[in-house]
Amino acid sequence: MSILLRDAAARYLRTKSPTAADGAVQRVSIEIELGGRVETVMLSFRDGSLCCVSSDGQSDGPHVLAALQFITAAERSEEAPRISLNPGAAMVLETPQAPELAEALDDLLTAIARVGADKSRYAPSVETAIERVVQVAPQPTPAGLARFVGRLQQEMRSGEIWRIARVLEGASQLVEALRAPEATRESEQRIEAWLGPRPGTKPSVELLFDRTMIEVGREWLACTDRARIERRYLVDAQSGAVYREDRPRNASASLGPCPRELRVGLAEVEAGPTPKRIRVLQYEVQPDVAEKSWERVRQVASRSIAQLTESYRRSVRAYPALGEPFGVIAPYRIETGDVFKAFDSDGHQLVLDRTERRGAVLAFYDLLARGEEPTWLAGRLTDTGGTLCLVPFAFGTRNRPYLRL
Asked: Residue 90 pLDDT more than 60?
């Protein structure tokens, strides 16, 4: 076992004066590289017992054992794999398909430009170019790239030229990142969002501990012809942040129906498009969400549509093809005429998007007609080019804390 980190810590401590009292270590998080794979291991001491888990979901796997040996300063046998804690040990490897994928995406952009975005839906050359992108991509098709294909086909069917252009702008950004002569933090994050982490690297993640998450909605999203993604929307009851849990077909994810309450012991949040993707590693499920939890959702909901609009614009600028923000709002007032409108206290408005999830939209209008008035409203955010819109998933009223659409 490499003990470079421990030796460096010992040398640093020798330069410092001893403290007056020893601290009690309750939780330790360590990154372990083993067999070319890097995982984050969390060790914690609770109620007199040791809890161990790694970011691959295992509680007694090789990365956990390596972390325990590091903590206890145990020596490993000569036959065991060598662990390097040198931050530079994990080299960034080139994706073999990168040049070919960049060329295929370039060909797709050219094909749509030749026939015109408004006619691209029916063009055989565009269909062939999309098939080529999927063929040269890593297999199985990465979730980000698969979702791009689904969104592009959806926008081509809609005929909205500016929406098609936005999705293609995202593809153009990926081409630039794949062809960049030198990798930058921005280009690596973009490639990671589309294609997943490169071999030998670990995703850029933030660790969350001891959080309560409320799932307010889920949906199946179109991807390639052979793939769909189930997306679950989780609201952090402490901060109000919204995360997405993506489950490809025939894959596993956290358990429980929608709605549900998750008491999360450990989770990873990936950098990338909003809502940021979360991987729940340690959790307990509460299928019956308490009324006080729904009240907490209302309390953390956004009161400023202006701030929500600016956040939405930043997300779309950063990831034009993959950013699909989800918002929870508590409107100051509403209008229920021909078009539902929600306003904040400064008069900024948000309208209902009636082009998607039409069954949910009809159900929402039916409930409004019966006198139900939302105190909070959750949904995926879109826009008409100038006005923020919301595709409804759920809302709560004074008498009914949660209504799923």
From this structure: no
Q: How far apart are CA 384 and CA 370, in angstroms?
A: 28
User: For residue 337, what are its two tokens?
Assistant: 């005429």
pLDDT tens by residue, 291-342: 999 999 999 999 999 999 999 999 999 999 999 999 999 999 999 878 899 9
Q: At what angle do helices 98-115 and 161-179 cross, to 10 degrees?
A: 150
Residue 348 burial by Cβ neighbours in a 10 Å radius (0-12, 13-18, 19+): middle
Q: Hey, what's the torsion of the CAs at 300, 304, 309, 315, to 10 degrees?
A: -30
pLDDT at 41 exceeding the cut of 90 = no
Provide the β-strand partners of residue 334: 342
CATH number of 301-404: 2.40.50
pTM (predicted TM-score): 0.78
Pick the CATH number of 205-292 from 3.30.1760, 3.40.50, 2.60.40, 2.40.50: 2.40.50
- The count of other CB atoms within 10 Å of the CB of residue 378 is 26
